[in-house]
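Predict fold of Enoyl reductase (ER) domain-containing protein; 353 aa.
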Amino acid sequence: MSTQSVPQIQKAWLILRKGKPSDVLALKQDVAVPSKLSKGEVLVRVQAAAMNPVGYKVMGFLPNFIARRPHVAEHDFTGIIANANGTELENGQAVYGFVPVQLKLKTKQGSLAQYLRVPASHCVPRPSTLTPTQAAGLTLSGLTAYQALFNIAKLEPGQSLFINGGSTAVGIYATQLAKAIGCTVTVSASGKKEDFVRSFGVDNFVDYTKGPVHEQLARNPPSPKFHVIFEAVGGTDVALYTSSEAYLAPGGIFVSVGIHPHGGMSGYKQALHYLWELNRPSLFGGIQRKWKLILVAFDRESLERYSEFVADGKVKPAVDSVYAFEDVQEAYARIMSSRASGKVVVKVDPTVE
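Predicted 3D structure, encoded as tokens:
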């Protein structure tokens, strides 16, 4: 596509203020298409975008003076380079990538728009084997899993990994990355999703509907114990960590996507309790296992290495559902229900597969 064919205005979903998506999101028909690109930036014609928990959580948490609203919603995208702007990418090239939270706060750019201005470094070529709706949700969840397992936990071939939340998008990508290097993977999920998660190579399964996961693991600890536990759900139940000496090996590491209060005073009291348990000295009953938080950050090396797993077919997309661009509110309702298995995708271009 030549730069001359790029329109001046576009459709985009804007976050107007702090709050729930149903209250603060608006579809605007006359948003300016970025016309000035800084050195190293490209213009992407977005074909599809994906929803992420961080999207609606930041939407409901950060005040306007920090978030600099209004700005375009969401982070994950795939599309076609409309203006390569002298970078290593080419006009017409298919790519996928993401807009980190920090970059969004600076540029006000997001993926729920027809055009997106983003650094070329945040894009990687999209394999021809993937459709836009398949590729749209690969980056943020996949990079979270990659950085958690390899940058933080230092997972090695042949080790044993437990993933709490095996049917989440992050959990699905973590499973595939671990299996790709030859690890044994145990996950928890609802029994109804056992066949689904096993299709990604899961070795052992824990049904959380049959009792607290930490109690099930403590009753039947693996031998040898897990080298890494990856908590891919987020929450305020600290028991999986505080009981982990029973099933996490000495020197092992517990990595979590975060502490996410569910609202109200009780949720924040739970979060404070979680923080106390994480920092409790051993003299007062603290456990001897490391706990680390994963806050995904842009890292070109990680993105390139992760994209190699995708290009080689070792990490495959997991799409829960696909929505039309006009149905973004329904897409948010789906991801906020916590029932999605894999990524919730929005077709920005209605003609793509």
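The two ends are 19 Å apart (CA to CA).
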